[in-house]
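Example 4.3 (complexes with small molecules)
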Amino acid sequence: MESFFICGGNRLEGELSIQTSKNAVLPILAGCILCDKDIILHKFPKYEDTLTMLNILEDLGAKTFIYDDCVKIQCDSISKSEIPVSLASKIRSSIFSLGAILSRFKKAKVPYPGGCAIGARPIDLHIKGLKQLGAKIVDKHGYLYCDGTNMKSGVVSIDFPSVGATENIMLASVFLKGTTKIINCAREPEIVDLANFLNSLGAKISGAGNSIIEIEGVTKLDGGEYTPITDRITTGTYVLATLICGGDVTLSGVNCEHISSLIHNLKNNCCKLDIKGDKLRVIANKRPKAISKIETQPYPGFPTDLQPQIMAMLSVARGTSVVVENLFESRFKHVSELKKLGADILVNDKTAIIKGKSMLYGANVVCQDLRGGAGLVLAGLVAKGYTTVDDVFHIDRGYYHMEKDLQKLGANIERITKA
Ligand code: UD1
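Answer. The structure with uridine-diphosphate-N-acetylglucosamine bound is encoded below.
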C-alpha cells in the first residue's frame, strides 16, 4: 500500500505549472472513438484514470503510443463495440464511451461504470438522453445493451445539468443527420473543451458553455492534434494549499475564469491573488478567515471537486464556516479523517459546520476518494508533527505525483510503501 508521509508546518514557495485537466481528457479520449484517423493529444497527463481510458480505447482496437508529453491514438483499427467489466469498473468515465460507440457502430454493450465512492452515481440521465435520440437500451445482468440503428437528431432535454450526460449526448449526436439541440446542458469548461476538440476534427457544435448546445450532424471526422485545457481543480487545490500553509506560490498555465467561484470566495481572505495572463500568484501571510457559507453547485458555482480541500482550509481558519454539499450524497467521507487531525466539524445531512482550530495535529488518516484524499494531504501539510495519508491510489487517479508538486514548493512530503 502506498501512503504519503508528511511533516507539517512548512511554508510553500515557488512556481508550479498546472497539468492538463483529467476531466477534460477523459471525454476527449471517448471522442477519439468517433474518428478513424490518427489523433495526437499534447500535454497528455498520465493519471491513473486517463491511462485506464487509454486501455479502454486499446481494448476497443485502437493503437496508442505515449511519447514524452503527448499521446498518439490510431483510431482506424477500433473495431469492438463492447467494453469489459474489468476496465469499466475502474472509472466512471467509461460510460462516456457509450454515446461514441453507439455513434460509430450503431450498437454497444457497456457495463455499469465504476469510479469514486461519493454516493449513488446513477446514469439515468445518460440513458434518458440517448433514448430521446432514438437509442434502444436494455439493462440486463449489469450491462447496457444498446441499439442505435434508429437514432435521429432532435431535441434532448436533460432534467439536471449533468456533466457526463451532456458529454455523452454530444458524442452520440455528432454524426446524426440534421440538428440536435440539447437543453439544460452542464456548462463546465470541460464541456467547452470537448466541443472545441470535436470541432477541430470537423464536427459542428455550437453553444457549449451555455445551457443549450446545438450539433449539426457531419458525415465524418478528420484526425488532428489538440491540447486540452489545464486542470482547474488542481489549480484550486494548490491555491488552497498555499492559504493553509502560508506562502508565495505562482501557478502557471492557469485559466482563472475557470476558478472564478473559488477566487470570489477567497476575496478579502487574508491572501493576495494576483492574476497576470495565465499566471496566478497567491500570497498568504496570515491565518485564513472563515467563510460564512459555501454551497457546491454546477459550474459556474463552487465545484464539489474542491469541497474537501476548502474544508481542510476552513478547519484551520479563524471563525466558523458552513459548507453545503449539493451534488453528491456521500461526499463528506473525509470529515471523520480530518477530525483525527483535530478538526472540529459537525455534519448534519448535506451541511457541515466547521469551527476553525488554530492548530491541527499529525495522525494516520486514510483516503476514501480522490478529492477527499487531496483535502487530507492539505490538512497534513499544516498539522503539527507527522501525518500519514494511506491509500493514495485514490489521489493518483487525478493528480500526477502530487507529492512531487508539493515538494517543489517546499513541503515536507514523501511517498512511502507500507507493508
Ligand atoms: C463530473 C466530474 C466529477 C465532478 C462532477 C460534478 C468527470 C470525469 N467527472 O462527474 O469530477 O465531481 O462532474 O461536477 O468529468 N446524476 C444523476 N443521473 C445521471 C447523472 C448524474 O442523477 O445520469 C446526478 C449525480 O448523482 C450528481 C449530479 O447529477 O448528483 C451531477 O453529476 P454529473 O454532473 O453527472 O457528474 P459526473 O459527470 O459523473
